[in-house]
Amino acid sequence: HRLPLAGWPAGAYLCLKSPEISFVLPQLAGLLPSARFVLVFRPLAEIAESMFRKSRTVRRQAVFNRRWEEERDGQGRLQPPPGVPLEWAGLWRQGTGFQRCLLNAAAYAKALVAGCALLPPERFFAYDHARLRAGMEPVAGALASFLGVEAAGFAGAAGMIREGAPPMPEELAGQIAPLREELGLNALQDDLAGLAAQSLQRHGGGERA
Q1: 9: confidence class by pLDDT, cuts 50, 70, 90
Q2: What would the mean pLDDT of 54-73 be, rounded to a whole number?
């Protein structure tokens, strides 16, 4: 989408819920050289479950139909969307709809970790939403430090956050194990946790982490 950035005030905040921005994080940093990025992630299984659930409820939106059913190559085989590594194409074609969501989630994680490695550490703050659900501190205090705002401003947010993880149907949970090792899901989750730990340490949350 085109955004009228030229008319925005210098102190504006932009919130993009689409995880596809993880694929272009260095490019965004180059286009917005004075911007800093707050990057939120969840456990990869939660991301996949959310995508799968949404794909069944918004099927009139063309993006889901193209991604899950209509993106095919010249031989009629399912074609992974941009961002999913080419070496995962076979898994994409063989997998279920939920497993394709998991492939997407893993691709986002790989891109996010790689993108942050190309940015100066002071330009991004990453945190795990599952950690935030367990309690606003130390995330809120460190995030406030990163943004240069008062931590008290987050006080009202605590009551708006659901503490528990979204339910994972058993039939979906059973589809994760066959891909866990092949996608390196544990290592990816560890890499994301490392980004979050670095953010907390840089902005005063390390001792309470």
Answers
A1: confident
A2: 62
